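Private note to self, pasted from the team thread so I don't lose it. Backbone tokens:
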């Protein structure tokens, strides 16, 4: 090929497909390639069930699990915050026209060996069994303060500097106990560790407000999930890229990333070199440009019942804060079912995940697995976490991060925005993307 692309994207994981779509909307000439014959990469949804079983060395699932084609099992299970960044991207680009979403039925948090519904409004705080009588009042007051907090209005700040006052200091001023801080930081603000406590409070306050705003949209929980699984998301953004002239090539072996000096100039596939100015890829395509920063363990569990003590909901998230089980990082559980067209009738898929901290990873998931019993079938999978070793400024190779253990997409969206800024030199602007899309597609 003699033509040169502005950007070549390698891998069809969700991060890469979103970036491909965004770059195409922005007017860049994009070529998207993947060694696999399917969309999704590490974040694919596997169907039929027989294919998922084969990945773990089992030829056939038991007949009790129904028709294989009724199943779609996510390799990287995550929910979408209803008011979060990914939903904003979906709405602004109208990718929502390609898929349907269903509200997740409940959000729960683990305390003292039991699970409780996450309270997020002042009224819920007063009614919750999660908090003691006096603590309910303090938490109610804290939530009221957070909801009216406006960094641009000094009257709402109560002498707090959003950019200097730490979240630990805000908690102390509110006189919240350790358990309430656990719930707030991990089940509402969705932090993975307690590192945030010594960081400026603005980010955490905005996270809590995002959770509350997302919850208020639908009432049951702040989370959404696409019918037929997360594999619909990368395909939706692939369609978006194609509308704007993006070219997709699946099942293309990548033989070499071609460099001139220290800068990328193309990709070699099947003996042919395709030239480019910039390259975006997932870590698997450039093992020499990434570093391992940890591991995630996931347990895929097939159940014949909803999770106990969740009011028999057909879908939910459970967060087990680190301190509740003497860990450094949280444990996550997400459950979906036939109501999302991802399992046979009467069956449920529950996936527990966490960042590995010991040399006995499966034992680290036991608090979560105990909540899921009895389990019909369980599969354990360990995956390495990678990050790029540099920002790609010299090489013009921009590498995404591996998907973490969280059960929401906020950290993934932050990675997308970070890569976008490094590629274009500009901050990602949701409204600008919406304008560009409307200019070309009109108000259909």
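Design output:
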């Amino acid at each position: 090929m003699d033509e040169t692309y502005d950007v070549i994207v390698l891998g069809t994981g969700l991060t890469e497909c979103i970036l491909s779509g965004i770059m195409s909307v922005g007017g860049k000439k994009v070529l998207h390639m993947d060694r696999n014959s399917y969309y999704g990469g590490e974040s694919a949804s596997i169907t039929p069930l027989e294919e998922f079983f084969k990945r773990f060395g089992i030829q056939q699932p038991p007949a009790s699990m129904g028709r294989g084609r009724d199943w779609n099992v996510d390799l990287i299970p995550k929910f979408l915050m209803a008011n979060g960044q990914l939903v904003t991207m979906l709405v602004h680009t109208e990718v929502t026209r390609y898929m349907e979403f269903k509200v997740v039925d409940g959000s729960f948090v683990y305390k003292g060996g039991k699970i409780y519904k996450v309270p997020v409004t002042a009224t819920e705080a007063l009614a919750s069994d999660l908090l003691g009588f006096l603590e309910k009042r303090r938490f109610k007051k804290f939530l009221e303060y957070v909801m009216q907090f406006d960094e641009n209005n000094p009257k709402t700040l109560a002498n707090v500097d959003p950019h200097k006052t730490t979240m630990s200091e805000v908690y102390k001023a509110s006189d919240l106990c350790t358990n309430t801080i656990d719930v707030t930081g991990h089940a509402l603000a969705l932090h993975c560790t307690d590192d945030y406590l010594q960081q400026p409070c603005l980010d955490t306050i905005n996270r809590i407000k995002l959770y509350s705003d997302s919850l208020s949209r639908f009432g049951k929980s702040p989370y959404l999930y696409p019918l037929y699984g997360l594999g619909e998301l990368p395909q939706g953004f692939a369609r978006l890229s194609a509308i704007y002239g993006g070219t997709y090539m699946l099942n293309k072996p990548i033989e070499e990333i071609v460099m001139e000096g220290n800068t990328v100039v193309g990709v070699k596939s099947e003996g042919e070199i395709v030239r480019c100015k910039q390259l975006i890829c997932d870590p698997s395509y450039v093992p020499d440009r990434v570093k391992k920063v940890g591991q995630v363990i996931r347990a895929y569990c097939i159940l014949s019942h909803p999770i106990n003590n969740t009011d028999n909901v057909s879908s939910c998230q459970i967060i087990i804060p680190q301190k509740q089980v003497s860990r450094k990082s949280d444990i996550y559980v997400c459950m979906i079912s036939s109501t999302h067209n991802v399992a046979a009738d009467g069956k449920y898929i529950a996936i527990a995940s966490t960042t590995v901290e010991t040399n006995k990873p499966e034992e680290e998931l036991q608090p979560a697995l105990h909540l899921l019993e009895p389990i019909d079938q369980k599969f354990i999978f360990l995956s390495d976490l990678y990050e790029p070793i540099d920002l790609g400024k010299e090489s013009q190779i921009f590498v995404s991060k591996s998907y973490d253990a969280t059960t929401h997409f906020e950290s993934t969206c932050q990675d997308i925005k970070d890569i976008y800024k490094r590629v274009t030199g500009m901050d990602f602007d949701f409204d600008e993307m919406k304008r560009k899309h409307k200019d070309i597609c009109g108000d259909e």
